[in-house]
Amino acid sequence: MSVDVSVPLLQTTGLSVRYGGVVANDDITLRVGASEIVGLIGPNGAGKTTFVDAVTGFTRSTGGILLDGETVEQHPPHRRRHEGLARTWQAGELFSDLTVTQNLAVAVQRPGIRTLIADTLGRSTPPHETIAAALTMVGLDNVADRRPTELSLGQQKLVGVARALVGGTQVVLLDEPAAGLDTHESRHFGTELRRIADTGVGVLLIDHDMSLVLEVCDRLYVLDFGQMIAEGTPEEIRNDPRVIAAYLGGPDVPPTPDDERTLS
Ligand SMILES: Nc1ncnc2c1ncn2[C@@H]1O[C@H](COP(=O)(O)OP(=O)(O)OP(=O)(O)O)[C@@H](O)[C@H]1O
Ligand SMILES: [Mg+2]
Q1: Paired sense of beta strands 22-32 and 10-19, if any
Q2: 227-259: pLDDT as tens digits
Q3: CA-226 nearest atom, ligand 1
Q4: CA 53 / ligand 2 centre spacing (Å)
């Protein structure tokens, strides 16, 4: 039997988040490897966005967060982003009055007095090559000067992902990036995610579209009421009685062998 000694790109150990009396994340241990697409699913309010907030530093948490073997839990969000940990926001809209390139440039511009002065003097130089590389990663080479309203919804969603890939991202956490896409667009989106992962990026994908996550993910984790209730391959998750119960709100008992409920 071979032992996997490789260091995952992202590893959380015993990550917990408390909001008052609510334990929104309870002792979450999860890893994402290079070139992996890992799903994080669960019903509304399960704690998926909270997990992304905690990992990227936007909410306080306890427990360990390692990025490529280095501890980052003490680092502020902008430092984690600089170190290669990027996210998208649930319902994260693009700026409609900016071009695609400008939307991506905004994402990497460092806040502060230098940027302000450079902007004022008209000497701000968005890193065009980095931006072009991110657009290439999502298969959008010809939209740099367009505005979001000129793009299809599927393309807009991919620009949203590109925005998180600008500038040497190692792990990207995508919070419902495909929401609102139809079946065809969603399938194309999944293909592009695979291409991104194939470049070595680790992808954590949150989505309610079961056919997308079960089709595109290498492994999945399932949250329910802040707790990890299952982990496994798409096939294992599809047939896991706890997962089926969490999604269908069924009785908290194992299904009988002839129970044919599955996630589609
Ligand atoms: N800033 C906050 N303050 C207090 N409670 C919060 C906060 N953010 C989230 N919660 C609570 O934490 C729990 C987890 O919420 P979270 O948004 O992480 O769920 P989710 O799995 O992303 O749900 P959805 O699928 O609807 O996006 C919920 O009970 C929610 O009400
Ligand atoms: Mg959420």
Answers
A1: antiparallel
A2: 999 999 999 999 999 998 887 665 554 444 444
A3: 14
A4: 10
